[in-house]
Amino acid sequence: QVQLAEYGGGSVQPGGSLKLSCVASGFSISGYTMNWFRQAPGEEREFVARIFTTGSVTDYANSVKGRFTISGDNAENTVYLEMNNLKAEDTAVYYCGAAASYSSRPTYWGSGAPVIVSS
After folding, report:
1. Where are the beta strands (DSSP E) in 8-56?
2. Residue-wise pLDDT tens for the chain (119 aa)?
3. 34, 40, 50, 82: which could join 92 in a potential S-S bond, CB 3.0 to 4.6 Å?
4. Cβ distance 13 to 115 under 8 Å?
5. Alpha carbon distance 101, 58 (integer Å)
6. Sign, CA torsion 21/26/30/32
7. d(C-alpha 83, C-alpha 66), whole Å
8. What separation in angstroms does the CA of 34 have from each of 16, 65, 78, 109, 118?
């Protein structure tokens, strides 16, 4: 069974940091493009970052570039999202997703991890 599980969500003050984890099971992340998306209340789910660990290729949304870092550990079958200098507009539920190609939308999704940035 294909499963993705996010961990590490929580509340943080503006300027703070959080690190999210996404543990995959039922497939190897090395064969997929792994993504982070986020969805704020009343908004559409939007792309945040992606990685293809085999080629160590990454991409980021402009809104998080320079602040967030995506990485993967094939041995642990886990992807991470390091979030620094968090802003109020980063508040959202963050979803991990696996895609068959680098530019495609994910086919498999986790259930989401809420992140609240507030003072």
Report:
1. 10-12, 18-25, 33-39, 46-52
2. 899 999 999 999 999 999 999 999 999 999 999 999 999 999 999 999 999 988 889 999 999 999 999 999 999 999 999 999 999 999 999 999 999 888 789 999 999 999 999 99
3. 40
4. no
5. 13
6. negative
7. 10
8. 25, 17, 10, 10, 28
